[in-house]
Amino acid sequence: MARALAERGYGIAVHYHESADAALETVDEFQRLGTEAAAFAADVADERAVARLFAQVMDRFGRLDALVTAAAVWEPKPLEEVTADDVCRQFCITRWARSCAASRPGGSWPGSPRVVRS
Description:
alpha/beta, 4 helices
């Protein structure tokens, strides 16, 4: 999804939590396409970190036209070992973070961007 947007001239903000190398490779790929791109680190399970992330994106790009979310965690383990904390963490990252980002902590988004779950 982000590649298709980059090919259409969108600037791309790449979020990562622990995968800095992969995020920087992705930014390099977009920049080779001639697209403005930058990487930003944040823990999307932390509401304040999400607010800082979006403030940094707005400082860099000045606007947000589309939000493509793909945040997830993969911690394979047998079902009988899954705890309530595991389920809550999964929910925080896959659902809460998207809701937090879509609602923009601290205000509304100029231009009413589209939110896409990839």
